[in-house]
Amino acid sequence: MAAAAIYSLFIINKSGGLIYYKEYGSAGRMDTNDSLRVASLWHSMHAISQQLSPTVGCSGIELLEADAFDLHCFQSLTGTKFFVVCEPGTLHMDALLKVIYELYTDYVLKNPFYEMEMPIRCELFDLNLSQAVQKDRVALLGR
What we know:
Blueprint: E1 6-12, E2 18-23, H1 32-52, E3 63-65, E4 70-75, E5 81-86, H2 93-109, H3 123-141
Antiparallel strand pairs: 1-2, 1-5, 3-4, 4-5
Pfam families: Sybindin (PF04099)
GO cellular component, one term: endoplasmic reticulum
Keywords: Endoplasmic reticulum, ER-Golgi transport, Golgi apparatus, Transport
């Protein structure tokens, strides 16, 4: 098994702009343009899935399963989307996404210097996010 179950984390604002991107592990590194394209594509697919769903009140795609990866998504009430790309079959990503959302509300939204909908540049968020992901890796891999 690889060292990390999580490949990458994306945070997209309500208008579809990528405001945070972090890679974990070395396989499949993306350049800035690729990460922007993935975020834009996911935002569009998520919005279309809400409109096409036969279920009233559908909040969009929460899990996309592929052969090589899983994509788990959490959308906040404000429309900000958090999604992780991880190894297929990785469990408890919904709980990790909620922890990441809590870190976002605590360290980004409460930061008086942060401008809404703009890229996230917050050292405390980065530090606590790294600790949460590392803690999750330890729980997943038993290391």
